[in-house]
Amino acid sequence: MNGAPVTHAYQALVVGAGGAGLWAALELARKGVKTAVLTKLYPSRSHTGAAQGGICAALGNHEEDHWEWHMFDTVKGGDYLVDQDAAEVLAKEAIETVIELEHMGLPFNRTPDGKIDQRRFGGHTRNYGEAPVRRSCFAADRTGHMILQTLYQQCIKHGVRFFDEYHVVDLLIEGGLTRGAVAYRIADGELHVFRSAAVLLATGGYGRVYRITSNAHALTGDGMALAYRRGVPLEDMEFFQFHPTGIVGLGILLSEAARGEGGYLRNADGERFMERYAPTLMELAPRDVISRSMYLEIRQGRGIDGGDFVHLDLTHLGREVIDRKLPDITEFVRVYQGIEPITEQVPVQPTAHYAMGGVPTDLHARVVVDERNTVLPGLFAAGECACVSVHGANRLGTNSLIDILVFGRRAGLEMARYVEGNELPDVPLTAHHRVEDELELLRTRRRGENPNVIRAELQSAMFDECGVFRTKKGLQHVARLIEHLKLRYCQARVEDGGKVFNTDLLDAWEVGYLLDCAEATVAGALARTESRGGHFREDYPERDDTNWLKHTLTYQAEGRPFLRSKPVTITRFQPKPRTY
Ligand SMILES: Cc1cc2nc3c(=O)[nH]c(=O)nc-3n(C[C@H](O)[C@H](O)[C@H](O)COP(=O)(O)OP(=O)(O)OC[C@H]3O[C@@H](n4cnc5c(N)ncnc54)[C@H](O)[C@@H]3O)c2cc1C
User: Which CATH number fits domain 6-239+356-420: 2.60.40.3500, 2.60.40.10, 3.50.50.60, 3.30.499.10?
Assistant: First the structure.
């Protein structure tokens, strides 16, 4: 039975209250646009708050630096799949963005003469690759936490309306126009229809598609899947980053800041093995290079005690540096591993970390739906759920926090322009029926499989066969498994049949998002018969610019993926072999 939903009308809707969503909302509010932020978590619990190491900008507070060098590092780090016009925007606007954060009151660490302190991070270099440069600004190893608190305060100050614990379950797109979104209120299971001319997806990543991940429980690719189901393609999903230093078995992140501050990686023989793979940058090579190198060491029998991990060695840094610059992550090591990092080496292994792909957008965060960059009016995306594409095939550390803020701000400004010229669209009274029926079926089905089993099978297969190393055979296997899991998912049932705080239902619902994101990831990975950045095919180990210097667009039609492609924008830097 479909009842009448509660309806709301706002000029602009922001889905997600991480860094991207909050900065967009702040710009909208400053322009006087009536804005609502819908978020399934309390804003301060968004994953942005877990970011540790830093946010980069070529401030040059310690040594000479330029936005062109930052742009170059981003393009090379992304294995030349980066759209260079976007990387230029990122590197230039990074500087004013960090300074504005400072003016909002963010408590950055300071140099002795009072400037924002900066540290080294992988792939960020001086003079086009010569040597590491200090480009990452930080507040100890709690940078994201500080960003989130600072932006949330600003939003409250400017009167942004928050709908906390509203889980968006569908986008309203009809007649080629965005009309709003449908949200499920977690407290009582009530559906709410939000009419709006402009909707921003800022829902973050989908690392929960992997068994071992640094990503929080809520990172299930919601915005990507919702757009994909409504005919929007997903771009470059085959590029997923594995961060080299996760806590063994748990995946909890030990920030790259540990290596930025001088930490070493050692194999069972005590060797700093990165010497073999990246003689110039060593432990500060990009993450894709280091994660692969770690596995190569392990495969050749040089994992610690014959196991599938290596050591992160901080023992030479000294207590003072560790306590002042890396307090949180070293505490994780003590709590989760029972190890004292000041005197002992820390076992680490790669952990699924970051989605380079996502909902395709132009430089103004407008969602585009084909290879000609045709805009879907009223739909916007920014942050980790979007692909603009500044990270190409592999993101550099500290480039995400700056990406979400630079493009979150651009989204807010563009949405403000858009709503000025566009009326609030009509929404049919039946708009929410489709998703209501699906949710009701899932909630009330009395026989069927537990969706947790489906999620666990998906996560294991993705980690084993669509992780750091990939082959045609493994990918075909996981593609078939996903098809099968999708059928099983249609018959799944949840334990809790109630409406009040039914997190069981929402956990199950999120498995549906993960299946869609996995499907697009594997389809892209199977098609791309080359190795580039975070996508490494053992059967095609070389980069192939002749055939594959292009973005993948994956569409869903009749429940199955199909692929198209679009060209990469190259402005300043021609592709070259990538050595470090
Ligand atoms: C442990 C860790 C450490 C990191 N460290 C760094 C670092 O030092 N530097 C760096 O640059 N990057 C770092 N990153 C990456 C970076 O933090 C993220 O890419 C970035 O914060 C993503 O921000 P976002 O605004 O896109 O989304 P998030 O901060 O993930 O927020 C997503 C928001 O969307 C909402 N949402 C999701 N689905 C729905 C739905 N269906 N309905 C309603 N709301 C929804 C959530 O409630 C949340 O508010 C790190 C990531 C992790 C996991």
Answer: 3.50.50.60
